[in-house]
Design brief:
heterodimer; A: 288 residues; alpha+beta; Enolase-like, domain 1; 3 domains; five-stranded antiparallel β-sheet; three-stranded parallel β-sheet; 11 helices; globular; B: 789 residues; Aldehyde Oxidoreductase, domain 3; Aldehyde Oxidoreductase, domain 4; 18 helices; 24% strand; Diverse_Substr_Oxidored (chain A)
Chain lengths: 288, 789
C-alpha cells in the first residue's frame, strides 16, 4: 500500500475562502478537486504538498451551460457531467468524443475539467480539445479575475499561468454557426493516456473553411496547437487533398518524444493520420 | 442453480463471502500491538553499497527497528536459498543487483511512519555498469553480476539440453524445407490484484512462529522457513488466508516475508508487511523472458519432421525460478507440442542480468507457455513458407487418437487425446472457411483482417514424486477426510485456492464419491496446522493431484463404510453393492432392497454397534496421492482480429476456445478459468510488457505503464469442449487452470500476423501494441524488451 507524507487539510467554503487559504498556506499548498492526478502523485511521493485545500464543495465552480453565444464550463465540472450534457454534445461533439476516451467511468465521475487543465500533463486530452476550439480560461486571484486564451494557458509540461495564489474558475467557448468538431485518439488500451490524439474544429461557409482549430496532444505540439496547418486550411475547400496536406503540415510541426507508448516516427505518423481523420469528420459535421 | 449430487454446475460456495466483501485477506489480519514494516529499495540496477546510515531513521519517534543486511548477516540470514538451488540476498550486503532490490527494512508503529522513515536512511552507492540486454550478458566484457560466487568469471547459470541432437541434425540435413525464426517471449508479471505481504507473529513464550501469508504452497513455505531460519518445523504455522489472485506470484518466498519474521523476532511484536503495487511489479517475481530461435524441418508437402530450438533464458540477478529440480528450463522441452514428428532437440542457456529474480510464474505450467508459443508460431512460419493454410497444416501433423499414450521425442508420455476432433470443432464453431472468404474480400479492399490458430498440449499435475521435486520435496499431495456422525464431511487438503474454487469443486469430488450433497462437505485448506502435507497449487496441479487425493480418500471412506454397513445389515461385505441415486449413496445387499445410506452408516460407525474384529469405528481416512504421470489437457483456439492499417490498432473481434481437460467437475468454474486465461493472453499478446532502459530502470512499474486488459479489449468468448478423460486419474480429470494462458497468446499473435500478411511480415514480438504493429508493417520491428527509442 502506498501512503503519502503528512499534510494539512482544509475545506474551502467559497472561492474567496479558497483564495484566503491559498494565501495562508503559501506556494506549497495545492488545491484538490477530483484528486485523480494529485493523490496518486502524493502516494508515490512525487508530490508532497504542505496542505491540501479541498474545493469540491464550491458549487459556483460547477456551472455548465450556455450563456448567450458562449458555452461556460466551470472548473469543477466532472468529466462525466461534460460527457452527459446534451448541449455540449450538440455544439461541440469534440468534447464528448474526447471524454469518452478519457480514463474510465470511475475516474470520469470524480475527475474535473479544471483539474485536468491545471495538471498540464503534456498528454492531456482536454488540453487538445480546448486548444482546438480556442477556449478562454478565467482565472481568479487576490486582485480579481483575468481571462487568458487557452493557447497561452500552458507554459510547459506541468506548468500553467495560474499563479500559486490563484484559481482557475471556468472555461468559456464561443458557439458559432457552421462549425463541426471531432476528436481522434489512439491508446494502447482503454483508459490509457494517448499515444497521440488530435482534436479538430472547422467552420465552413459555402464549402470554404473560414475557421480552423487543431489541438494535438502527446506529440510535443507547442500549446497543443498546430497553427501552420490551421493557417493553410483557411479559405480552402475541405476536400481530401487539402485535409491530407494540413495533416502533413501538422505532423511536421510536432516534436514527439519516444517512450513506451511508441517511437518518434510512429507518433509523428499518428499525428498526421489522426489529424486527417479528425478534420474529415469535423468537416462533415460543419456541413450538416 | 440447483446443487448437483456430484459433478455439475453449481454456484461457488466461496462466493457467498466474496460478493459480500467478507473475504479475509492477509491485509485484513490485525493483531494486538502489531507493527508495520516497509522496505527501502535500490534505485540502481547494479551498484556497490559503500555505506548505510540508519541513525536518523532510528531516531524517528515511531520507529522500533531498522534491519539491514548487516543485521541479517549476524543471524546468518542475509542470503536465503532460492527454489533453484541458488542464493538470493534478503537484504543487500555487498551490492545491489536490480532496481528495486531490498536494502533495509524499517519496523514502525504505523505504515505511514515506516514509509516516512525510509527517507531518513542514507545509503551511499557506487554505481556499476548494468547487464540489461540478455543477448549481451555473455559478452567477454560484460560486468560480472554474481561476484559473490567464488571463482565466477561470467554470467552463465546453466547450459541444458533435451532431445536427440544427432538424430535431429541428421533430419535437418536431409530436409526438403527448413524455416528459422527468432522470437522473444517478453518478461511479464502475474500482477495479482492483491500484492504479496505477510504478518509474522513470533511468540517468545511458546517459541511458535505464525506467518499469515498469501502463499500458493503453505506446506512448502513452512518447510523452507524451518530450513532457512533454523526454527523447528512443528513450531511454525503458515496460514494462507483468502488470496486475491496468485498466478504463480505467490509460490516463492520473498525477502519481505523473511524481514517480517525477523522483525517480529527482534521486536517481540507481530509485524505486518504489505507490498505496494510498484514493489510487486518491480521485485516479486516475473515470468517468461525467453529469447528463442526455432527451426522446423519439413517435407515440401507439409509433413513436419523435426524441431530444433535454442533459448537464451533471462533469469535476472538471482536464479529463483520455481520448477522441479531436474528441469532448469521447466517443462520447456515439451516444445514439440501436439505434433507427430521424428526428432527434436533444444538447448537452453540460463543467464544472470540486472533484473528482478523469479522466472516461472504467471500461469505458465513450468515454461509450457513459452514452448507452445514457440511451436505454434513456427507452424505459422512454416505455413507461410509453404503457402499452406495454417489449419490444414496443423490437421495434417497433429497426433492421431490411436497414437496415445504417446511418447514424444523429448521423453514425455502424453496420456490421452483426440486432437483432430477438437480442432475440427473449433473450426466449425468459427466458421473457418467463411472467415477465410471474408478475409480475401477484405484484402481486396485494403482492409486487414486476421485469423489465428493455436493448438496446444499442456502437461500439468506434477509429480510423480520420483521425477519431480522442489528442493527435495516430492510432488505428492495428502488429503484427509472426516465424516461426522450425521454424515457431514470435512475434507482437508494441502493445496490452496487463489480463485480456482477448491471449496466447491473438491466438495463436489467428495460428494460424487460418497453420494452426499456438496453442501454437506466443507473444505479446509491453507493452514499448515490443520491440513496434511502437500506441495501446493501451481502448474494446474490442484485437481490432477489434490483432486485425485480427494477422490482416493473418499473411496477409502467408502470402503470403510462398506464394512460398517455389512455389520449393520448382517451381510458379507463382498455381497454389498454401492449405488448412488437422487437420494444419495448407499451400500445395498445385492438382489435385495436392503441397504444403508452413507448417513446411516456414519451414525452407526460412531455408535455402540458391534463391529467385526479388525474393523475400526468412525469413517475417517487419510491418503497421499503420488500421480503416476502428468495429465495432458489440450485445446484448439481460433482468434479473429481486425487491424487498422492507418494506426496499427488491433481489435480482437472473436475468440473461439475449445478446451479438452478431461472430465469437468464444475463446468462453470472451468469456463471461468478459461475466460480469465484468455483475457490474460490478450493482455500478453497486445499490451503487457516489462521493458528496461539501458541503466536498468524498470519501465513498467505501475498499472499506468504495465497494462492489464479490460473487458473493452476482450470479445465475448466463444467456448466449446471435448472430453477425453485422463486414463490414469481417478476421475478422469486433467488440469485446466493455465490452459487458456498457454494457448491464447499464440492464437492472438498468429491472427495479427495473418492480418499483416499483405505486408510480407512473418513475425513480430509481443506485445503487439499499435506502435509495434505499425513498425512491423514498415519492416522495422520494435525490440520489445528494451526501451523504445
Amino acid at each position: 500500500m502506498q501512503v503519502p507524507a503528512s499534510f494539512e487539510f482544509e475545506r474551502a467554503e467559497s472561492v474567496p475562502h479558497a483564495l484566503e487559504l491559498l494565501e495562508r498556506y503559501g506556494p506549497e499548498a495545492r488545491l484538490v478537486a477530483g484528486g485523480h492526478s494529485l493523490i496518486p502523485m502524493m502516494k508515490l511521493r512525487l508530490a508532497q504538498p504542505d496542505a491540501l485545500i479541498d474545493i469540491n464543495g464550491l458549487a459556483e465552480l460547477s456551472q455548465l451551460g450556455v450563456e448567450g453565444d458562449t458555452l461556460v464550463i466551470g472548473a469543477l465540472v466532472r468529466h462525466a457531467a461534460l460527457l452527459a450534457d446534451d448541449a455540449v454534445g450538440a455544439y461541440f461533439p469534440i468534447f464528448h468524443e474526447a471524454e469518452r476516451v478519457i480514463a474510465d467511468p470511475v475516474v470520469r465521475n470524480r475527475g474535473t475539467v479544471g483539474g485536468s487543465l491545471c495538471q498540464a500533463d503534456p498528454s492531456e486530452d482536454l488540453s487538445a480539445a480546448f486548444a482546438a476550439v480556442r477556449a478562454d480560461a478565467v482565472i481568479v486571484g487576490p486582485g480579481g479575475s483575468r481571462t487568458v486564451p487557452i493557447r497561452e494557458f500552458h507554459v510547459g509540461p506541468y506548468e500553467t499561468v495560474v499563479e500559486p495564489g490563484e484559481i482557475l474558475t471556468e472555461l468559456r467557448v464561443r458557439i458559432k454557426p457552421g462549425a463541426g468538431s471531432a476528436y481522434e485518439k489512439v491508446e494502447r488500451r482503454v483508459g490509457d493516456w494517448p499515444v497521440a490524439a488530435v482534436g479538430a474544429y472547422l467552420r465552413t461557409n459555402e464549402g470554404m473553411i473560414v475557421e480552423a482549430g487543431l489541438g494535438l496532444t502527446a506529440v510535443g505540439a507547442e500549446h497543443f496547437a498546430a497553427p501552420d496547418a490551421e493557417a493553410y486550411l483557411i479559405g480552402k475547400a475541405a476536400g481530401e487533398d487539402v485535409l491530407r496536406e494540413a495533416a502533413r503540415i501538422a505532423a511536421a510541426s510536432c516534436a514527439p518524444q519516444a517512450d513506451q507508448r511508441g517511437p518518434v516516427d510512429y507518433k509523428r505518423h499518428l499525428a498526421g493520420e489522426l489529424t486527417y481523420r479528425a478534420l474529415s469528420r469535423a468537416a462533415e459535421r460543419s456541413r450538416a | 442453480m440447483s446443487t448437483p449430487m456430484g459433478f455439475g454446475r453449481m454456484h461457488r460456495k466461496e462466493d457467498a463471502r466474496f460478493i459480500r466483501g467478507r473475504g479475509g485477506y492477509v491485509d485484513d489480519v490485525n493483531l494486538p500491538g502489531m507493527l508495520y514494516g516497509a522496505i527501502l529499495r535500490s534505485p540502481h540496477a547494479h551498484a556497490r553499497i559503500v555505506s548505510i546510515d540508519t541513525s536518523a531513521a532510528l531516531a524517528h519517534p515511531k520507529v522500533k527497528a531498522v534491519i539491514t543486511g548487516e543485521t541479517l548477516a549476524g543471524l546468518n540470514l542475509a542470503w536465503m536459498p532460492t527454489l533453484s538451488a541458488d542464493t538470493q540476498a534478503v537484504l543487500a550486503t555487498d551490492k545491489v543487483r536490480f532496481q528495486g532490490q531490498e536494502v533495509a527494512f524499517v519496523v514502525a508503529e504505523d505504515r505511514y511512519s515506516a514509509r516516512d522513515a525510509l527517507e531518513l536512511i542514507d545509503v551511499e552507492y557506487d554505481a556499476l555498469d548494468a547487464v540489461i540486454d540478455a543477448r549481451k550478458s555473455l559478452d567477454p566484457d560484460a560486468p560480472i553480476i554474481r561476484d559473490d560466487h567464488e571463482g565466477r568469471a561470467d554470467n552463465k547459470i546453466f547450459d541444458w539440453e533435451a532431445g536427440d541432437k544427432a538424430t535431429t541434425d541428421a533430419v535437418f540435413a536431409q530436409a526438403e524445407v527448413t524455416v528459422t525464426q527468432d522470437m522473444l517471449y517478453p518478461r511479464v508479471h502475474p500482477a495479482p490484484l492483491e500484492t504479496c505481504g505477510a504478518v509474522a507473529d513470533f511468540d517468545k513464550v511458546t517459541g511458535k512462529l505464525t506467518v499469515w501469508c498469501p502463499t500458493q504452497a503453505p506446506h512448502a513455505h513452512r518447510t523452507l522457513y524451518a530450513l532457512v531460519a533454523g526454527l523447528p518445523e512443528h513450531k511454525i504455522r503458515v496460514i494462507s488466508p483468502d488470496i486475491g489472485g496468485g498466478f504463480g506470484n505467490k509460490v516463492g518466498i520473498y525477502p519481505g516475508y523473511v524481514c517480517a519474521i525477523v522483525g517480529s523476532i527482534v521486536t517481540g511484536k507481530p509485524v505486518k508487511w504489505m507490498e505496494d503495487r510498484s514493489e510487486n511489479l518491480m521485485s516479486t517475481s516475473f515470468a517468461r523472458d525467453y529469447h528463442m530461435r526455432g527451426e522446423v524441418a519439413a517435407t515440401r508437402d507439409g509433413k513436419i519432421q523435426a524441431i530444433r530450438v535454442k533459448v537464451l533464458a533471462d533469469h535476472g540477478a538471482f536464479n529463483g525460478t520455481a520448477q522441479p529440480t531436474k528441469f532448469p528450463a521447466g517443462f520447456f522441452h515439451v516444445f514439440t507440442g501436439s505434433y507427430d514428428l521424428r526428432a527434436a532437440h533444444c538447448e537452453v542457456t540460463g543467464v544472470y542480468t540486472n533484473k528482478a529474480p523469479g522466472g516461472v510464474a504467471y500461469a505458465c505450467s513450468f515454461r509450457i507457455t513459452e514452448a507452445v508459443y514457440l511451436v505454434e508460431r513456427m507452424i505459422d512460419v512454416l505455413a507461410m513458407e509453404l503457402g499452406a493454410d495454417p489449419a490444414e497444416l496443423r490437421m495434417k501433423n497433429l497426433l492421431r487418437s490411436e497414437q496415445f499414450p504417446y511418447t514424444s521425442p523429448t521423453g514425455w508420455e502424453y496420456d490421452s487425446g483426440d486432437y483432430q476432433k477438437t480442432l475440427q470443432l473449433a473450426m466449425d464453431m468459427a466458421g473457418y472457411d467463411a472467415l477465410r472468404r471474408e478475409q480475401a474480400e477484405k484484402r481486396d479492399r485494403g482492409e486487414l483482417m486476421g485469423i489465428g490458430i493455436a493448438f496446444f498440449t499442456e502437461a500439468v499435475g506434477a509429480g510423480p514424486r520420483k521425477h519431480m521435486d522442489i528442493l527435495g520435496l516430492g510432488m505428492a499431495d495428502g488429503a484427509e477426510l472426516r465424516v461426522h456422525p450425521t454424515g457431514k464431511a470435512v475434507l482437508r487438503v494441502s493445496c490452496q485456492s487463489q480463485g480456482q474454487g477448491h471449496e466447491t469443486t473438491f466438495a463436489q469430488i467428495v460428494a460424487s464419491e460418497l453420494g452426499i450433497s456438496p453442501d454437506d462437505v466443507d473444505v479446509v485448506h491453507g493452514d499448515t496446522d490443520q491440513t496434511p502435507f502437500g506441495l501446493g497449487t501451481y502448474g494446474s496441479r490442484s485437481t490432477p493431484v489434490s483432486g485425485a487425493a480427494a477422490a482416493m480418500v473418499s473411496r477409502k471412506v467408502r470402503e470403510r463404510a462398506r464394512q460398517v454397513a455389512a455389520a449393520m445389515l448382517e451381510a458379507s461385505p463382498e455381497d454389498l453393492e454401492w449405488a448412488v441415486n437422487e437420494s444419495g449413496g448407499a451400500w445395498t445387499v445385492a438382489g435385495t432392497g436392503a441397504g444403508k445410506t452413507i448417513q446411516e452408516i456414519a451414525l452407526a460407525a460412531h455408535s455402540s454397534l458391534e463391529l467385526p474384529e479388525g474393523i475400526e469405528g468412525h469413517l475417517d481416512a487419510t491418503c497421499v496421492y503420488n500421480p503416476p504421470n502428468l495429465t495432458y489437457p489440450f485445446g484448439a483456439y481460433i482468434c479473429v482480429v481486425d487491424v487498422d492499417p492507418g494506426t496499427g490498432q488491433v481489435k480482437v473481434r472473436r475468440f473461439i476456445a475449445v478446451d479438452d481437460c478431461g472430465v469437468r467437475i464444475n463446468p462453470m468454474i472451468v469456463e471461468g478459468q478459461v475466460h480469465g486465461g484468455l483475457a490474460d493472453g490478450v493482455g500478453m499478446a497486445l499490451m503487457q510488457l516489462m521493458a528496461f532502459d539501458e541503466d536498468g530502470n524498470h519501465l513498467g512499474a505501475s498499472f499506468m505503464d504495465y497494462l492489464l486488459p479490460t473487458a473493452m479489449e476482450c470479445p465475448s468468448w466463444e467456448l466449446g469442449e471435448t472430453v477425453t478423460p485422463s486414463p490414469h486419474h481417478p476421475i478422469g480429470a486433467k488440469g485446466v487452470g493455465e490452459s487458456a494462458t498457454v494457448g491464447s497468446p499464440p492464437a492472438v499473435v498468429n491472427a495479427v500476423l495473418d492480418a499483416l500478411r499483405p505486408f510480407g511480415v512473418r513475425h513480430a514480438d509481443m506485445p503487439l501494441t499499435p506502435a509495434g504493429v505499425w513498425r512491423a508493417m514498415q519492416g522495422n520491428p520494435i525490440r520489445t524488451d528494451l526501451a523504445i527509442s
